[in-house]
Amino acid sequence: MTDSDQKTYTVLVVDDTRENLRVIGESLSPRYRVRVANSGDRALQVANSNPRPDLILLDVMMPEMDGYEVLRRLREAPATADIPVIFVTALDADNDEEHGLALGAVDYVTKPVRPPILLARVRAHLELKQARDVLRDQNAYLESEISRRMQENELIKDVTLNALALLAEKRDNETGNHLHRTQAYIEALMEHLQEHPDYADELSPMQQRLIAKAAPLHDIGKVGIPDYILLKPGKLTQEELAIMRTHAAIGADAIAEAVERVRTPLAGVRGADAATEPLAFLEVASQIAGHHHEKWDGSGYPAGLAGTAIPLPARLMAIADVFDALTCRRPYKEPFPIEVANRMIVEGRGQHFDPIIVDAFIALRSRFEEIALRFADID
Question: Domain ranges in the chain?
Answer without folding.
Answer: 3-138, 172-374
